[in-house]
Write a structure and sequence with these properties.
The chain is an alpha/beta fold and 380 residues long. Helix content is 40%, strand content 15%. InterPro entries: Aminotransferase_I/II_large, Kynurenine-oxoglutarate_AT, PyrdxlP-dep_Trfase, PyrdxlP-dep_Trfase_major, PyrdxlP-dep_Trfase_small.
């Protein structure tokens, strides 16, 4: 029996590989983006309570209605944007599922999708499964800004969607007001849709506002805005997110969603409804992670790594150009095996594996974990 792969070039993700390598060699895992500290006790209590009270069967396909209402309230307060919880919000099994479903909803064979790289690894496989055509624009490698002139040159009659991500994984950069205004100009009067990956919306530093597409009416009417509870509440393993889109887009999204996962873990949805009442937990998240960023950066100044600017997310990029001329993938593996710290090489986020001698560290860790990691990094 022969099986012709739909994704012949896809291998196990670098995150799985590096986490496995870290486990094998007993290294400190700063590769995969997950916290090593516990979520808020009230979140755990709320989920346990929901299960004990019998909320163990299917949730509504669109999501638990009280949660959707609470999300609509939060969006109104955060972005001054009104959305209908009945028709314009859907709860998803994490942000990756939301992105995948949005791409399946929008993209037909031979239609083009513009990707801005380095790009999160789930985008491209979804486009290929739709038999779409990816078009790549590279962020400026100096400051990771978007060269909008190049984006404009790629737009054609076949362009169906543009994917954006801010705060940006893996670089830690953020989109500014001028970026969203430029995107608004490029798409105005076209049939181009936007998928906006905003999972780190609250992990943004130095008093910056998060520039969501929902702040811009002309973008909002053509966009799927995607968010993650896992990133906000330190429970990446629960895999719950949500998507906001106009009713006409959401109708089509739900057609795919109902046959993709149908519905999402009900006790977790009830728990997120309860925890959203504690507004300070997401409102103060940026400050919480900014302290970790600053703490980690201060420690790293004792190493030979060159630090890159971090405006959001819980990732720190570093250059090892003054240390080694090895490929970033080789250096990352050697770091894990010989020095006991596992990073992610940046080249895996590029379609052509561009190597700028950059590594990504996750600092969503206890301070003691970060201290132990830097004790090892100093030896390099």
């Amino acid at each position: 029996m022969q099986l012709f792969s739909k994704l012949p070039d896809v291998k196990t993700t670098i995150f799985t590989q590096m986490s496995a390598l870290a486990k094998e060699y007993g290294a400190i895992n700063l590769s995969q983006g997950f916290p090593d500290f516990s979520p808020h006790p009230k979140l755990i209590e709320a989920k346990c309570k929901a299960m004990k009270q019998g909320a163990n069967q299917y949730a509504p396909m669109q999501g638990y209605m009280p949660l959707r209402e609470k999300i609509a309230e939060k969006i109104q307060e955060s972005y001054d944007f009104t959305c209908n919880p009945q028709t314009e919000i859907t709860i998803t099994a994490g942000a990756t599922q939301a992105i995948f479903t949005a791409i399946l909803t929008l993209l037909n064979p031979d239609e083009e999708a513009i990707l801005i790289e380095p790009v999160y690894d789930s985008y491209l496989p979804a486009i290929r499964l739709c038999k779409g055509i990816p078009k790549f624009v590279e962020l400026n490698p100096q400051d990771f800004s978007i060269p909008w002139g190049q984006v404009k040159k790629l737009i054609s009659k076949k362009t169906k969607l543009i994917l954006i991500n801010s705060p940006h994984n893996p670089t830690g950069s953020t989109l500014k007001k001028k970026d969203l205004q430029e995107l608004e100009k490029l798409t105005k009067g076209t049939d181009i849709f936007i998928i906006s990956d905003e999972v780190y919306e609250h992990i943004i530093f130095d008093s910056q506002p998060h520039e969501s597409v929902l702040r811009y009416p002309e973008l909002a009417k053509r966009s799927f805005a995607i968010f993650s509870f896992g990133k906000t509440y330190h429970v990446t393993g629960w895999k719950v997110g949500y998507v906001v889109a106009p009713e006409n887009l959401m109708n089509e999204f739900r057609k795919v969603h109902q046959y993709n996962v149908f519905c999402v873990n009900l006790p977790a949805q009830i728990a997120f409804y309860e925890i959203l009442k504690e507004k300070s937990l997401y409102q103060e998240l940026g400050e919480f992670y900014q302290q970790k960023r600053d703490f980690f950066q201060k420690l790293l100044q004792s190493t030979r790594f060159e630090l890159k600017k971090v405006e959001g997310t819980y990732f720190q990029l570093v250059s090892y150009a003054q240390i080694s001329e090895e490929k970033d993938t080789d250096f990352a593996i050697r770091m894990t095996k010989e020095f006991g710290v596992a990073p992610i090489p940046l080249s895996v986020f590029y379609s052509k594996q561009n190597d700028y001698n950059l590594l990504r560290f996750c600092f969503a860790k206890e301070n003691t974990t970060l201290e132990k990691a830097v004790e090892k990094l100093i030896k390099i």
